[in-house]
Known about the structure:
3 domains; 222 residues; alpha/beta; GMP Synthetase, Chain A, domain 3; four-stranded mixed sheet; Histidine-containing Protein, Chain: A
Amino acid sequence: MTLIQTRTKTDKQIQLDVLAEIERDIRFKPAEVGVEVEQGIVTLTGTVSSYLKIGEAADIASMVPGVKDVANKLAVALFGAPRDDTAISRAVRSALEWDTTVPEEKIDAIVRNGVVTLKGTVEYWYQRKAAGDAIAHLLGVTSVNNHIIVAPAVRTDREIHDELRAALARRFPFEEIDVAVDQGVAILQGTIPTYRQRREAETLTWATRGVKSVTNKLAISA
C-alpha cells in the first residue's frame, strides 16, 4: 500500500509546533505564551517579562512551516518595583550611545509610563532597526514606538530596481518575486513558500540603499 503524504498542516498541528518551539526556548517560562491558529494565521496571547520577548516570540512562530502570518497580542507584565521614567530615559540614552551602529546624536527619545518613543532621521534602515533593538531589552521598557525616519541617499528608481532585483534573485533563485520601484518606494509582488521567507525578502529590500519605503504584497503559496 502506498501512503500519500500531504504538505498541508492542520491548524492544530501548527499550534502544537509553535507551542513546542516556544517552550523549548530557554528565554520563555512554561505556559508564558498562548497560541491560537486559524487558517494558518497564528495569534500569540499572554504576558511576558520584557518587551524584547514580544518580538522574539513572533520570530519563533514565524519560522514554523505552515504559518502564514502572526498576530502578536503579547503584553509586558513587569515584576517587582516599577522603574521610573527618568531612570529608563538614562538607560535608553546609554544604550543608544554604546551601540556603534546607531547615530545616537540624530535620535531623540521620549519615555512615558515605560513606553519609549524614538524620533529623528537616519540614512539607513538598519540604523533605525538597531536603535529599536538596542533599547528593547531594557528593564522597565514596556513598548517601543519607533518613529525614526529613514532618509536615504538619492538614487534613481532604475538603480534601486536593478540592485534589488539582482539581490532577490541571488537570495531566492527559485521563487516568483516581482519588483517595482516608484519614487523610492519598493513594491514586492508574487508568491513565496513561507512567512519567514516573506519577511526575509522584505528585510533584504529595506537594506537596499535608496529605498524609502517597502510595500510587501508577497503571498504565501503553501
